Amino acid sequence: MSHYHRNKQDLSAQQWSNDYPTLSNLVKNSTSGASSELPDVLKGSVDSFATRYATFLSLSNIEGKIQDSIRFYTDFIVECTRFIKTLITQDQIAPPCQVELMIIPKKVVKVEEEDSDDSDTDSDPDSEDDSVEEESDSEEGGFGVSDDIDPFEALPDLNAHFKKLKLPHEHHVLNGDHCPPRTFYNLLKQLKAIPNAITPRSPSSKKISELNRFDYPHKQRLSIVVDRRKDDTEIFMFEPDPCNEFPRDHVYEW
User: Fold this and answer.
1) Of 69, 26, 73, 65, nearest to 46 (Cα)?
2) Could you tell me if 97 and 217 are in contact, meaning their C-beta atoms sit under 8 angstroms apart?
3) C-alpha–C-alpha distance, residues 49 and 76, integer Å
4) 181 and 85 Cβ atoms separated by less than 8 Å
5) How crowded is residue 144: how many other Cβ atoms within 10 Å of its Cβ?
6) Average pLDDT of the chain to the nearest whole number
7) Which phi and psi angles does 74 have, rounded to 5°?
8) For residues 142 and 150, is the Cβ–Cβ distance under 8 A?
9) How far apart are CA 222 and CA 190, in angstroms?
10) Is the pLDDT of residue 244 over 70?
11) What is the C-alpha to C-alpha distance for residues 130 and 222, in angstroms, rounded to an integer?
């Protein structure tokens, strides 16, 4: 981000390796014994990730900004990581599996409106009152979006929408802005208890000791949506349908 604001251009992997000590520190602390090849491997990995996996980030034409708690986002990312670790280490679910965490933010504001408010220092005394009135009017549209274009218009009330689709799901309303430990793990247990909520598994092994290893979500997807648009944060967990299972014999890049 700082590189872009200084130079108005993207930071390439080559320039990153030249200008920042991250790569050299990784090579210096490596115990793999292949330090001569490691820089090229790491640069290639960064290029591959940016090209094939990372969503393109445009910093030159940002139309909206998210206004929400960074701490809240961090708490949920940490909780999701712990959830996956618990599945693998405690329940001994065999990888691979895919857990998708989607967070709908509380509020989105247009950048041009935000910038104009900050830069308008010579306005008349009544301008502040006008801006307050405009902001309050725009928030009446629902979900706290300070513009007549609602970026969440295509996302209805999720609980009612899932029920209309007859999609089995688990719904939880969070008490406050803190995500308690094992929130996702407990939701999965409740989801498994719902009839037909999870696709039945057909394990290749009939040994009792191995049945749990191939339990859900082994080779399957699990979706978690955190909806912050209302006063109380809502969490939804469900198995997406269709496309809920990994393709057979498809190891490379699911």
Assistant:
1) 26
2) yes
3) 23
4) no
5) 19
6) 75
7) -65, -40
8) yes
9) 14
10) yes
11) 46
In which residue are the tokens 């247990």 written?
189
Question: Which tokens belong to 131?
Answer: 């801006």
Cα 172–Cα 177–Cα 183 angle in degrees, nearest 5: 40
Query: pLDDT tens digits, residue range 172-210?
Result: 999 887 888 899 999 999 998 888 887 765 554 444 445
Instruction: Take residue 194 and report the two structure tokens written for it.
Output: 């719902």
**Cβ neighbour number for residue 64 with a 10 Å cutoff:** 18
Burial 66-81 (b: 16+ CB within 10 A, else e): eebeeebbebbeebbe
83 and 99 Cβ atoms separated by less than 8 Å = yes
Report whether 46 contacts 95 (CB < 8 A): no
Residue 191 near residue 198, CB atoms below 8 Å:
yes
Tell me how far apart the alpha carbons of residues 137 and 127 are, in angstroms, rounded to a whole number: 15
Q: Is pLDDT of 31 > 70?
A: no
By mean pLDDT, which of 117-121, 192-196, 219-223 is the weakest? 117-121
Q: How far apart are CA 170 and CA 78, in angstroms?
A: 20
Q: What is the DSSP letter of 47?
A: H
Beta-carbon contacts of residue 144 (< 8 Å; ≥ 6 apart): 106, 107, 229
**E strands within 11-159?**
64-67, 98-104, 107-110
Please name the amino acid found at residue 175: N
Residues 53 and 16: their CA atoms lie apart, in Å, by 18
Please name the amino acid found at residue 138.
S
* Cα separations in angstroms, 199 against 108, 172, 216, 221: 36, 22, 8, 11
Peptide bond just before 125 cis, omega within 30 deg: no
Dig out the tokens for 223 from the structure: 């979706």
